[in-house]
Amino acid sequence: MPTLFLSHTSIDKPFVxxxxxxxxxxxxxxxxxxxxxxxxxxxxxxxxxGLSSSEYFGxxxxxxxxGSEWVKSELSSAWFKKMACNSNQILPLLYRACxxxxxxxxxxxxxxxxxxxxxxxELALVFGIKSTEAITSDNWRxxxxxxxxxxxxYRESEFKELVTALCKITEERNFSIYTGGSAxxxxxxxxxxxxxxxxxxxxxxxPKKGYRYMCSEGDENPNHVPLSSFDRYAGSTVxxxxxxxxxxxxSYEKEFGRPVGKRFVQTTRMDRxxxxxxxxxxxxxxxxxDWNQDVL
Length: 296
Prior knowledge:
- By secondary structure, the protein is an alpha/beta fold.
- The chain folds into 2 domains: 3-134, 3-Layer(aba) Sandwich (Rossmann fold); 152-285, no CATH class.
- It contains 9 helices and 11 strands.
- The chain has helices at 13-25, 33-36, 43-53, 63-66, 69-85, 116-126, 151-173, 238-256, 277-288; strands spanning 3-7, 29-31, 56-61, 89-94, 110-111, 176-179, 187-191, 200-206, 212-217, 232-235, 265-266.
- The longest helix has 23 residues, at 151-173.
- The mean pLDDT is 84.
- Residues 1-158 form the TIR domain.
- It comes from Gordonibacter massiliensis (ex Traore et al. 2017).
């Protein structure tokens, strides 16, 4: 996905920050000074690098922006690049009513003045995106087939939330918990700790079911569960999955009482103990306890 440089004046920052977040959620790379320029770096040179590396130049138009010498300078640089290299598309983004500069009048603008979502939709079409619904923790499953969307980050965050909650629940109620490894990623098994009145089941984010939670009965190690065994629906959200698990634990305790015995806990991400991860983790730990940041 190409990069969009956002030119704006400081008074319009609240609008620009929202726009940058929404574009990032749609999978569009955004060059925005707040994200790109770090303390101590040259603002002039970093902006110049951003202009040079961005295929699209978005100028947020407002009366204050058109009076800003900095915005005028960025627009001039973008226009020169367009004329010299024919490699930069200028995108006017009309945020508040103002008189358009002569250079921009022949170019169709995205209109954000009265309807933000409409303006976002018009802008997204430039990048071939027909739906501008922003990806969130609630709807990430709808973006699994959307190119360049970061749905995998949301999937991982949701599973972390689920396992964290299950660890607290199983600790309070004395049940064992076992998360799957690379053989069965995004799966977790819950079981009673003793062989007497043994009970176990496993739930998994099933990619063939749109990453809904599916359950397999009678299993205590998720890595050994055949994929075909995940045949019972357990929920589409963390809360639904937790309700499913708690209902199972309630049924067990109603019949057999609170389980006894020493519970087993395995929630280590075994995939992260392979490859370069141990080395990077060691480096991070050593830097935390050493003034010399080049210790490794």
